[in-house]
Amino acid sequence: MSEPEQIICADTDGVAERAARFIGDLSLSSIAERGRFTLVLAGGSTPKKAYHLLAARSIGPAVDWSKANLFFGDERFVPFDDQRSNFRMAHESLIGPAGISADRVFPMPTDRTTPERAARAYAQTLEQFFEVQPGEMPSFDLVLLGLGDDGHCASLFPHAAALAVRDSPVTWSPPGVLPPPVDRITLTFPAINAARHVLFLVSGANKADALRDVIAGRAAPTERPAAGVCPKSGRLTWLVDREAGRLIDAR
Ligand code: 6PG
């Protein structure tokens, strides 16, 4: 992996604006190089702002959604129209307003009987789309991630069994300590680390401790799961606001 890049923005809006620009730029180069753009969406409040900006085409280069394919990094095991669903959030903020065609969107299938079955089905969806063998990791162009104040990313929670899954791009997890208390489906470390780019969007003072631990290499992935994100041959970029980044240089 090349050296991670850190970009400090003034506030949450600044992070969302920079993220929208980053996504637009990367969509152009991905489509130019490979004819398509594979983007993994995150849940969370800062990504949501970035999705609104992307849909409004108000910042940076507009994404050609007819050549983009949208996946999800994690999902709460709730119906698609539930208030807690990441798919619902993405639909309301981006997919609907930008008019993205349903055949370009790959939600995690929370209509299965168990989260384990949903995870297995999503792994198959990825295998088919990326034309890889079972257990082989797909290479997304861009994985968006948020950081929880406990250091989790996607739905990879501290000390969870999901952290150790190596043989599938997707697994499931009981909830961590942060709400909502519902089972999750999540990409695994090997899937995230096979991406060409990983972009963290981090804002708010409550993230400062976790962010410092991860960036300074102070914590193991079992304690602060985001420390396990290190793309094998891709790039890692941190978009951080001042409040979240205030301890980064403190030793
Ligand atoms: C989710 C997320 C989760 C989120 C972080 C940060 O489903 O909740 O995908 O990993 O990104 O908890 O969320 P905020 O950006 O809202 O703080």
Question: What's the gist of this structure?
Answer:
The protein is α/β, with parallel strands linked by helices. 31% of the residues lie in helices and 18% in strands. The protein has helices at 12-34, 45-56, 86-98, 115-130, 189-193, 208-215, and strands at 5-9, 37-41, 68-72, 74-76, 142-146, 170-173, 184-187, 197-202, 235-241.
Task: Provide a descriptive summary of the structure in words.
The chain is of the alpha/beta class and 251 residues long. It has a six-stranded parallel β-sheet with strand order 1-9-8-5-2-3, covered by helices on one side. β8, α6 and β9 form a beta-alpha-beta unit. The mean pLDDT is 96. The chain binds 6-phosphogluconic acid (6PG). The site of 6-phosphogluconic acid has 13 residues, from α2.
